[in-house]
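Per your request, structure below.
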C-alpha cells in the first residue's frame, strides 16, 4: 500500500495508519534533519518535531491542490528545520554566557563605538534623503564640487552657466541642507 492510500485512512483518524505513516517517513525525517539542521545536541527533539509536523500535515493536507502528499510533507519538513536553524543562529551581543555572566559584546576588541556608528549612519541616510530633495541642478553642482573636486569655474563651463549662478546654486543648496538637517536634530 502506498503512502497516498494510507493517508486517506490516517486523515479519517485511523491511528494505525498514522503510526504506519510515521514509521515509513522516519528516514525522511532523519535525512531532512541531516540536510537542513544537523544539530546533534537536539537530534531527539528535532525527530519529535518532525513527527508532529507529519501529523499536522495529515490534518492540513488538501488533495485538491494537486500536490502529492509526500511532496507536501517534504517541503514542510524542509522549512521546519530551516526555520529552527535560523532561529538558533540569531544571537544577541548582549546575551550572557559562562559562569561570570559575561556578554558577547565584551569579547569584541578595538575601539568600536556602536552607538556612534549607528548615529553617523542615520545622519548620512538623512543627508542622502535631503540631497535627493534638491533640484537637479543643485544636486549636480554639489556632486561636482564635493565629490568630483571640480572648481566653481569648471562647473560653470561644464553646464554653460555663469560662475555666479553656480555659486548661488551651491550656496542655496547648502543652506537648504543645513536648515533641513537642523530641523531633525
Amino acid at each position: 500500500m502506498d503512502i497516498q492510500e494510507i493517508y486517506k485512512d490516517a486523515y479519517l483518524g485511523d491511528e494505525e495508519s498514522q503510526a504506519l505513516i510515521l514509521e515509513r517517513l522516519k528516514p525522511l525525517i532523519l535525512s531532512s534533519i541531516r540536510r537542513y539542521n544537523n544539530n546533534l545536541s537536539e537530534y531527539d527533539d528535532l525527530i519529535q518535531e518532525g513527527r508532529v509536523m507529519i501529523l499536522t500535515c495529515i490534518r492540513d493536507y488538501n488533495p485538491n491542490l494537486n500536490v502529492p502528499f509526500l511532496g507536501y510533507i517534504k517541503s514542510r519538513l524542509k522549512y521546519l528545520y530551516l526555520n529552527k536553524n535560523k532561529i538558533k543562529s540569531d544571537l544577541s551581543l548582549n546575551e550572557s554566557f559562562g559562569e561570570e555572566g559575561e556578554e558577547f559584546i565584551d569579547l569584541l576588541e578595538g575601539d568600536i563605538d556602536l552607538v556612534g556608528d549607528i548615529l553617523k549612519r542615520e545622519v548620512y541616510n538623512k543627508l542622502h534623503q535631503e540631497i535627493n530633495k534638491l533640484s537637479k541642478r543643485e544636486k549636480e553642482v554639489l556632486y561636482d564640487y564635493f565629490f568630483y573636486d571640480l572648481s566653481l569655474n569648471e562647473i560653470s563651463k561644464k553646464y554653460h552657466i555663469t560662475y555666479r549662478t553656480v555659486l548661488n546654486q551651491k550656496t542655496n543648496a547648502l543652506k537648504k541642507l543645513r536648515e533641513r538637517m537642523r530641523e531633525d536634530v
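The domain at 114-183 is CATH 1.10.10.10 (Arc Repressor Mutant, subunit A).

Regards,
D.
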